[in-house]
Amino acid sequence: MQRVHYCDDAGWQTTPTAKHALRPWLQERGSLTARLKRHYADFSVQLVREAWCKPHVDERQLLQLAMGTQAWVREVWLMGDGQPRVFAHSVIARKDLRGAWYGLRKMGRLPLGAALFANPTVERGVLHFRKLSPAHPLYKTVSKHLPLLPRQPLWARRSLFCLQRHHLLVTEVFLPGSATQADSV
Hints:
This protein is an alpha+beta fold. It contains six helices and seven strands. A hairpin with a 2-residue loop joins β6 (about 155-165) and β7.
């Protein structure tokens, strides 16, 4: 994967700062989808949105997009035992949505992780971590769909995936209870 240089993008770090039950999940370099499937007999993907949207400021900077540029955004719940466990938010620039990535526009309820990790030519960049505060746009999106969400920080991780020099940014937000439910895996 070509080297992507992160600018100071509002708090994303290369290591999670504290020791907590989610740390092994956050640092998982393999497929989070596969790990969730191993843990939850009843795993599914619930589509929230697939649409052309303006990416968040830090995403736009990371993907080197001009202000006002739209990108393909896909948001899903990764469900375990009928409960949302992870909110996944993927962003791909129009210029990168071609070739092998073109099929991402029609993923629907299929898990993106399965497609990414099934292709040996897809390379994953460095994982970055952040505790999202209620003011963060992704936190606001999660709380809009889960109105009873406790007002506590949520851990998230993100990384760039590269296929033939075309980039896809995937961010996964871990919901409260994910660690206690998932720590035995």
